[in-house]
Specification:
The chain has about 450 residues and is an alpha/beta fold. Helix content is about 55%, strand content about 10%. The chain folds into 3 domains: about 5-85, SRP54, nucleotide-binding domain (Four Helix Bundle (Hemerythrin (Met), subunit A)), CATH 1.20.120; about 100-295, P-loop containing nucleotide triphosphate hydrolases (Rossmann fold); about 305-435, 434 Repressor (Amino-terminal Domain), CATH 1.10.260. It has an 8-stranded mixed β-sheet with strand order 3-2-4-1-5-6-7-8, with helices on both faces. α20 (about 395-405) packs across α21.
Length: about 450
């Protein structure tokens, strides 16, 4: 997960600060030295780190902080505030034209994920009630047009293609006219990229910009390329005048330096972040929420938004009714697993829950495993309806059949059934403990091991 190393080091540094009473200027200086090293190791631009530490230090060694009853919390708040400012302070939205269509032009190097991002952005805008049109203006990469068409079919979003036209400027202009005549209020142009920056590419992009006059020029940057992404973004900004940045692959094994540097170096806001391979894995970028994730404070607002978009409210109410009546079956259990999976990868969900990292360790070293979720689903799906309603009838021969059907072992089936019985007991205990306000302990879900 992006920022994992940086987050861990920053949290260790602040843990040391919390262990002290009042802080001296030396304590703050030493802590900021650790912060500086953590940022540099995360591949944050050197100039950005230097300015960041200077701003934090200026605020953190003030008398108000050092003489506070909770000086460590003051320092952490200052770092949080400065991280938020570094990444843009507030969420930056797409500029919507008062006279549709709004034209969005995606630019960047080949391999950054422009075509996939075009599909994800169109999907996001469609869910917001827009009527997007995807435009295949990359006439050089053989698979680019076909890839965009496949994405369009999956998302049920039209893709404008001129198979015989190799002039991207003409294609972009014709697509804008088509959108106007077909009531498409948003045009997303997938432009060509190169493996490196050259004048031919820039000239083509400048011509498209001059012809269709896009309301938004968004640079698509691969977060895993680190400082290279920042350097390339700076060049594109100087040549084209960017309106914003979309960071892709933020869910990957990246150090995160691009996300923390690109806003400061280019002066252009990060508007979206790609958090996975699925077509719904593009999120509006919130600097304050990202700063909270980095510092281990979670991101409850994003988690709530994910839940609202993914979970069926009526199903949730029905599940609550069944829990209260102790009528919770393996069918219900399976439905709950599917609801959880709709929220996205569990490591991302955990990152949004404040303090979940330390809580996870307390839960008997439990780790959340996506593969275990799928295995559990396979086992339940291999049962008959009667077995899912009444697991007590599942004898030895049935367990063997279920194991063969799900491609698992009898031990796996036994473990799931045991955990399901424990889960039902836990539901009952939760009902009994609501009045007393006590907290249950020692419970493990099937996808925790």
């Amino acid at each position: 997960m992006v920022f994992e190393g940086l987050s861990e080091k920053l949290q260790q540094t602040f843990k040391k600060l919390r262990g002290k009473g009042k802080l001296s200027e030396t304590d703050v200086t030493e802590a900021l030295r650790d912060v500086r090293l953590a940022l540099l190791e995360a591949d944050v631009n050197f100039r950005v780190v230097k300015d960041f530490i200077a701003r934090v230090k200026e605020r953190a060694i003030g008398q108000e902080v050092l003489q506070s009853l909770t000086p460590a919390q003051h320092v952490i708040k200052i770092v949080h505030d400065e991280l938020t400012t570094l990444m843009g302070a507030t969420q930056s939205r797409i500029t919507v034209s008062s006279r549709p269509p709004t034209i969005i032009m995606l630019v960047g190097l080949q391999g950054a994920g422009k075509t996939t991002t075009a599909g994800k952005l169109a999907n996001l805008l469609k869910r917001q009630g827009k009527r997007p049109l995807l435009v295949a203006a990359d006439v050089y990469r053989p698979a680019a047009i076909k890839q965009l068409q496949v994405l369009g079919e999956k998302l049920e979003i039209p893709v404008y293609v001129q198979e015989d036209n190799k002039n991207p400027v003409q294609i972009a202009k014709a697509a804008a006219d088509y959108a106007l005549s077909h009531a498409r209020d948003t045009v997303i142009i997938d432009t060509a990229g190169r493996l490196h920056i050259n004048e031919e590419l820039m000239a083509e992009l400048r011509n498209i910009k001059q012809t269709v006059k896009p309301h938004e020029i968004l640079f698509v940057a691969d977060a895993m390329t680190g400082q290279d992404a920042v350097t390339v973004a700076e060049t594109f900004n100087n040549e084209l005048g960017l309106d914003g940045v979309i960071l892709t692959k933020l869910d990957g094994d990246a150090r995160g330096g691009a996300a923390l540097s690109i806003r400061a170096v280019t002066g252009r806001p990060i508007k979206f972040a790609g958090m996975g391979e699925k077509l719904d894995a593009l999120e509006p970028f919130h600097p304050d929420r990202m700063a909270s994730r980095i510092l281990g404070m979670g991101d409850v607002m994003s988690l709530i938004e994910k839940a609202q978009n993914s979970i069926d409210l009526e199903q949730a109410k029905e599940m609550e009714r069944k829990l209260r009546k102790e009528d919770f079956t393996l069918d219900d259990f399976l439905e709950q697993l599917r609801q959880v999976r709709k929220l996205g990868p569990l490591d991302q969900i955990l990152g949004m829950i404040p303090g979940m990292g330390s809580l996870q360790k307390k839960l008997q070293g439990a780790e959340f495993d996506e593969k275990e979720l799928k295995r559990t689903e396979a086992i339940i799906c291999s049962m008959t309806k009667k077995e899912r309603r009444d697991p007590s009838i599942i004898n030895g021969s049935r367990r063997k059949r279920i194991a063969i059907g799900s491609g698992t072992r009898v031990q796996d089936v036994n473990r799931l059934l045991k955990q399901f019985v424990e889960a039902r007991k836990m539901m009952k205990r939760l009902q009994e403990m609501q009045k007393s306000g006590k907290k249950p302990s020692g419970f493990k879900l099937p996808f925790m091991h």
